[in-house]
Design a protein that fits this description.
Layout (H helix, E strand, L loop, with lengths): L8 H15 L5 H8 L3 H7 L3 H8 L8 H8 L5 H30 L13 H18 L8 H21 L6 H19 L19
Helix pairs in contact: 1-2, 1-4, 5-6, 6-8, 6-9, 7-8
């Protein structure tokens, strides 16, 4: 088989990612090499060990792209449309991240948690970032006042659960399907978090997600 002498590191990582997601850490590097159309030696010139290749291939980029949506949308534009864009980008993130996370944890077990030693866990960071955004929107009357951190956790939990369930049953989630999920989730929540339609101000509520 002809070898591609100009293959990039990213092409090797793409091949490794596909094979590791199919077979876990036990996948043979020879199979990765064949998929990437390089020799095994070429792989190990760039990655000293199989473990290094595994973590590089399944690495999750931080911060996620949906953080940029939070920064772009804060305090401006139509709040409902902003939330829809945020929900959709969160779904895209989970669609990419969850298979990698499940494969890493399933393959390495407790060793996978060492990735987060000495740092705030990404789940906590994500919840805090979304919660801070929602809190600011509540303070300016763009959303009804409620427990912003709880609302953030409910949003992230609902969206991640849908993607995880689809992954388990091998349901293909197209961009159109992800947009439908984002829209449906927002539709269910909006009546409880929308500002008062009369004066545009957030209403104080004795409990999160009260309608009115």
């Amino acid at each position: 088989m002809a070898r591609n002498t100009t293959i990039t590191e990213e092409q090797i990582l793409e091949a490794a990612r596909a094979v590791f997601l199919e077979e876990g850490f036990g996948a043979q590097t020879a199979k990765i090499a064949r998929r990437a159309q390089v020799s095994e030696g070429s792989i190990f010139k760039r990655f000293p060990t199989k473990e290094a290749l595994f973590f590089a291939a399944l690495r999750i980029e931080r911060p996620p792209v949906w953080y940029l949506e939070l920064d772009r949308c804060a305090g401006t534009g139509d709040c409902r449309e902003n939330l829809l864009a945020i929900f959709y980008n969160i779904l895209l993130f989970f669609h990419e991240m969850l298979p990698r996370t499940v494969t890493t944890m399933g393959s390495l077990g407790p060793m996978a948690h060492k990735t987060f030693e000495g740092m705030e866990h990404p789940i906590v960071t994500d919840n805090n970032r979304l919660g801070d955004f929602l809190h600011k929107e509540m303070e300016t009357g763009r959303l009804r006042t409620s427990d912003a951190k709880l609302l953030a956790r409910l949003i992230l939990g609902a969206l991640s659960s849908y993607v995880f369930s689809a992954m388990i049953i091998r349901q293909d989630l197209t961009p159109a399907e992800l947009h439908k999920i984002a829209t449906g989730t927002l539709d269910f929540l909006w009546s409880g978090i929308a500002p008062d339609p009369i004066n545009g101000k957030a209403q104080e509520s004795g409990r999160p997600f009260s309608g009115g």
